[in-house]
Amino acid sequence: MLYECYGGGTAFVLPPLPTMPQPSDVSQVLLSVGSLVGREVDLDAFLQTLVDRIAITMQADRGTLWLLDPARGELFSRAAHLPEVSQIRVKLGQGVAGHVAQAGESVNVPEPRGERLFFADIDRMTGYRTTSLLAVPLRDTEGAIYGVLQVLNKRGAERFTEEDIERLTVIAGQVGTALQSTSLYQELKRAKDQPQAPVGYFFNRIIGESPQLKSIYRLVQKAAPTDATVLLRGESGCGKELFARAIHVNGPRRDKPFVKVDCAALPATLIENELFGHEKGAYTGADHRVPGKFEAADSGTVFIDELGELPLPVQGKLLRVLQDREFERVGGTQTVKVDVRIVAATNRDLMKMVSEGKFREDLYYRIKVVEMVLPPLRERGGEDIERLARHFVATAAKRHRLETPRLSAAALERLKTYRWPGNVRELENCVESAVVLCEGEILEEHLPLPTVDRGAPAPATGSTEPTVSANPAGLLPLAEVERHHILRVLESVKGNRTAAAKVLEIGRNTLARKLKEYGFADEA
Ligand SMILES: Nc1ncnc2c1ncn2[C@@H]1O[C@H](COP(=O)(O)OP(=O)(O)OP(=O)(O)O)[C@@H](O)[C@H]1O
Q1: Stretch 6-19: mean pLDDT, rounded?
Q2: What is the pLDDT at residue 23?
Q3: What are the residue boundaries of the Sigma-54 factor interaction domain, all occurrences included (predicted)?
Q4: Which segment, 32-36, 247-251, 327-331, 503-507, is predicted with the most confidence on average?
Q5: Measured by CB atoms within 10 angstroms of the end CB, which terminus of the chain is less buried, N or C?
Q6: pLDDT tens per residue, range 75-122
């Protein structure tokens, strides 16, 4: 039997197809899948391109890559043409995709109205009108289903054809295998072994598979869906802001604002104003009411960076927001109510600050409802360093429109044995500099690292002690390369700090701080 009719007689359920010829346009779509997946490219961008190409080839208006979350028995949209919402989840067995994942059969729906498999809630949620739909299962090499590939609304026709079904099945076969080599598949597999850990969370921009990082992922998965206040601790540059964003986008507030306040970048006198805003006439020059970051973030998340720099008087006001979600603007008496989640970060020892009377004890306990201590890079082991380095080589090459160079074995060895006092940020800058300076593969000498790493031991899985030698090649110290690069970028954007910060992908305040260190005056 080739197909079976359902309910309204409009859905065709197909048995798995035997090996079939591959239409040439399909090979076009998949031309670069294998090679792209093999490299550490931005997974989000890659999956989106994949879904774009599939939709074009299938002459469909939209495409969706659904993946299976075994912990919740749900499918979630991992990459899709879904401008209306950030993600959709359906129960296994629910709707066409849910049925395909459960039954392992392809389903072709020429006319969704009246079709019992069709889950109209999604159209209601997005406002999109599905007129035809085709969905096929996504299997790994062992034949286990781990997702669904779906296309919507055949262009210029009322329905997807038999040939379309064959084509999408071939595509799904290749995509299914290709995705198996990504961290995404590893995540799904891990969730299968640990059914309590839901997946579908957006960790793909965070690189790292070390046990230290994995335990942080688990914490984020638990804390993100709640409204719990989170305190992120860790050395500078180890990814606190990145994780703060992961907490936000993995929680129910993901479509609401994520507002950052950097307490270190503001003079103490301005922090209160920045957080809580001010009323008209609060001080000379305050000629109208200005809302603060808490109001700007209403319904979303406020990320308070460098919490240890928060002046004592403002600490009391923050405590009240944590307890009662209310405050008064500077110079005001009217109480403002806000609905925000608070995530804070610090590289200071807050407990010590409490004992020194510099940080309020009650605030300390209120803020560390969930505490995450991010490991310094040197403790994450050589494999994570290599993963990150490869990722940064690829992204830097893309950013500067250069051929992606290779990391030589000697370069890798040096990266793995260096101590990384500036953590991932330092590695990122170091690799970027080497990518820009090298021709061809990244030879060891292109890495702006001191030849003598005066730091202590190599990372856990790093193999050798750093060689102690002089600096025969007269290499520049990292700080000098960074300074040189920053000034070059600044020059190229004619001194525009906002533009320079954008090119450098650092905050404007960070740039201002660095320029100040180089002896430049603050901007007027
Ligand atoms: N695990 C990671 N994977 C990929 N990129 C990372 C990772 N950790 C950090 N980065 C990158 O390193 C840089 C520094 O990270 P981030 O700003 O989150 O650190 P931080 O701990 O908040 O630093 P600071 O304490 O100085 O504010 C960023 O460009 C970030 O994207």
Answers
A1: 30
A2: 42
A3: 206-436
A4: 327-331
A5: C
A6: 988 887 766 665 788 889 999 999 999 999 999 999 888 788 888 878
pTM score, whole prediction: 0.59
Indicate which atom in ligand 1 lies nearest the CA of residue 347: 25
pLDDT of residue 473 exceeding 70: no
Element (H, E) at 259: strand 258-262
Q: Does domain 381-475 have CATH number 3.40.50.150?
A: no
Mutation to probe ligand 1, out of 262, 377, 424 (largest number of atoms < 8 A from CB): 424
- Which atom of ligand 1 is the closest one to the Cα of 242? 18
Closest atom of ligand 1 to 234 CA is 21
Q: Could you tell me the CA-to-CA distances from 118 to 43, 465, 513 in Å, in that order?
A: 30, 62, 56
Is domain 12-188 classified as CATH 3.40.50.450? no
Whether the per-residue pLDDT at 31 is higher than 80: the answer is no
The pLDDT tens digits for 40-65 are: 345 666 787 788 888 988 999 999 99
Is 344 in contact with 208 (CB distance < 8 Å)?
Answer: no
Q: pLDDT tens for residues 142-188? A: 899 999 999 999 998 889 999 999 999 999 998 888 888 776 777 77
Count how many Cα atoms sit within 13 Å of the Cα of residue 289 in the half-sphere of its side chain: 11
| DSSP codes of every residue in 11-75 | -EEEPPP-S----HHHHHHHTTHHHHHHTT--HHHHHHHHHHHHHHHTTEEEEEEEEEETTTTEE
Q: What stretch(es) of the chain map to CATH 1.10.8.60?
A: 381-475
Give start-end residues of each CATH 3.30.450.40 domain in the chain.
12-188
Q: Is the alpha carbon torsion for 206, 208, 213, 219 positive or negative?
A: positive
Exposure string of 242-267, with b = 16+ CB inside 10 Å and e = fewer, is ebbbbbbbbbebbebebbbbbbbbbe
**Ligand 1 contact, 130 CB (< 6 A):** no
Burial class (CB in 10 A: 0-12, 13-18, 19+), 35: exposed
Biggest CA-to-CA distance, the chain: 83
| Integer CA distances (angstroms), 4 to 12, 15, 131, in order | 5, 9, 20
Rounded Cα distance, 293 and 371, in Å: 23
What are 106's strand-pairing partners? 14
Interface confidence: ipTM more than 0.95:
yes
Residue 206 Cβ contacting ligand 1 at under 6 Å: yes
pLDDT tens, residue by residue, 341-368: 999 999 999 999 999 999 999 999 999 9
Among protein residues, the one with the nearest Cα to ligand 1's atom 9 is 239
211-373: which CATH topology?
Rossmann fold (3.40.50)
Q: Which of 176, 178, 13, 174 has the alpha carbon at shortest distance from 104?
A: 13
First vs last C-alpha separation in the chain: 77
